[in-house]
Amino acid sequence: MGARGKLAQMSIRNVHKTYSIQGEKIHALKGVDMDIEDGSLVCIVGKSGCGKSTLLKLMCSLESKDEGDIAFGNGIKDLPKVSIVFQEPRLMPWLTVRKNIEFPIKGKLGKKELEKRVTGQLEMLGIREFENAYPSQVSGGMAQRVSLGRTLCYEPDIILMDEPLGALDAFNRKKLQDEIVSIFKNEKKTILFVTHDVEEALILGQKIIVMEEGKVKDSLDVEMEYPRNPSSVEFINLKKRILSLIFG
Fold this sequence. Notes:
One of its GO terms (molecular function) is ATP binding. Keywords: ATP-binding, Nucleotide-binding, Transport. This protein is of the alpha/beta class and 248 residues long. It has a single domain (38-54, 81-247), classed as Rossmann fold (3-Layer(aba) Sandwich), CATH 3.40.50. The protein has eight helices and nine strands. The protein has helices spanning 3-7, 52-59, 97-102, 111-124, 140-153, 170-187, 198-204, 233-247, and strands spanning 10-21, 24-36, 41-45, 67-72, 82-85, 158-162, 190-194, 207-212, 215-221. The strands form two sheets. It has a six-stranded mixed beta sheet with strand order 5-6-7-3-8-9, sandwiched between helices. It has a three-stranded antiparallel beta sheet with strand order 2-1-4, covered by helices on one side. Helix 4 (111-124) packs across helix 5 (140-153). The radius of gyration is 18 Å and the shape is globular. The termini are far apart. Mean pLDDT is 91; it is low at 1-5.
């Protein structure tokens, strides 16, 4: 396994996070333990407020943990290249689609290499013809593609996705689910995907982690091949099992 692979493994041990809201302490995470393998697509599900999004923020240092350890590779605590995709695209409205995608690497590559990398993302995500449009001129689904392209252009070791498809209509959601699976298979990235939608988790994930009240309740390996059929007996049975873990 190469250096990138070592970095893209994660070990999370006894992680705690507490917020203080109007003088009241809220325990968002209560001793979370999990292991994420290099090159895996892991989905995290659970009720609202169970700590899913908080955990992602700690993983990419948007917030600091109170206690515990998040290590990468063989005990490495220095962050590898980690990027996060939020539910809303968070594009810069004054920049075109192309300029938004190139933003995280502008000035770090030569002109030809920069153009080649950005063009590759535009073509892979099917938005090349909109490269000169501004965020206000594209649909929500296309804006989320731009956000994903910006993340991939950075070439992170680990991609964190915090309900990135939650605000999309069913058609665009299905298209982006297919694209995420394609990116995972072709790019061999380590992806952590938070969702409240159990069916979406089963369509995407190799492993599904169920969280409850700030802790990991259970984890399940998903051995179905891609693309997955939500009407299959195996899919339906796994969905029932996960729903029973969340709501049972």
